[in-house]
Amino acid sequence: MTIHPLVAQLRFTRNEFVRCLQGISPEDGMRRVMPMNSISWTIGHMASQEHRYWVILPQGLNLAPDLYELVGSGRPATTPPLEDMWAAWQTITHAADPYLDSLTVDRLQEHLVNKGKPVAENIGTLLHRNIYHYWFHTGEAHAIRQVLGH
Q1: pLDDT at residue 124, rounded to an integer
Q2: What would the 3-class secondary structure string for 12-68 be?
Q3: CA–CA separation, 135 vs 14, rounded Å?
Q4: Cβ proximity of 66 and 104 under 8 Å
Q5: What's the rounded Cα separation, in Å, for the pair 57 and 68?
Q6: What distance in Å separates the CA atoms of residue 55 and residue 84, rounded to the nearest whole number?
């Protein structure tokens, strides 16, 4: 089976996100450089988006029930443990991959369903949104690392 090019792009983007964050200590991962969130929050935040888009809505699995409350968009700022956020991110991306591998050109035009109603954006748009969201937070993480003296 051929992986859709956008899925391959998401995987490349994830790898760059991970590469950007290599060598972060648990202490630095939890430090908040105002007005930005901590790096640990960012990792959990990206896991939360993938969890919703690729695990909860299409697969009906909730692998991290408290994650959105901890690091979701619009939630109060937190500084969760770095190790916990990496563990959540790894669990969620691993669970997302089989679904992502199943995407085809036709399926990208479909809409996921939330609470009995179609999500406004189609799967292809959500995939683009996820990729660009990673790039935004990768740049932000580079800035945080510079401020921290890395």
Answers
A1: 98
A2: HHHHHHHHHCCCCCHHHHHCCCCCCCCHHHHHHHHHHHHHHHHHHHHHCCCCCCCHH
A3: 9
A4: no
A5: 14
A6: 19
Round the average pLDDT of the chain to a whole number and report it. Answer: 96
The pTM (predicted TM-score) of the whole model is: 0.96
Distances (CA, A) of 124 to 108, 109, 139: 4, 6, 23
Torsion over CA: 52, 53, 58, 61 (sign)? negative
- Please tell me whether the peptide bond between 58 and the residue prior to it is cis, using omega within 30 degrees of 0: no
87-127 pLDDT per residue, tens: 999 999 999 999 999 999 999 999 999 999 999 999 999 99
Token couple for 17: 């996100």
Number of Cβ atoms within 10 Å of the Cβ of 28: 18
Contact 42, 29 (CB under 8 A): no
Contact 65, 25 (CB under 8 A): no
For the stretch 67-72, contacts whose Cβ atoms lie closer than 8 Å and that sit 24 or more positions apart, written own/partner, are 70/44, 71/41, 71/44, 71/45, 71/47, 72/45, 72/48
Token couple for 96: 């997302």
Find the length of the chain: 150
Distance, CA of 138 to chain centre: 11
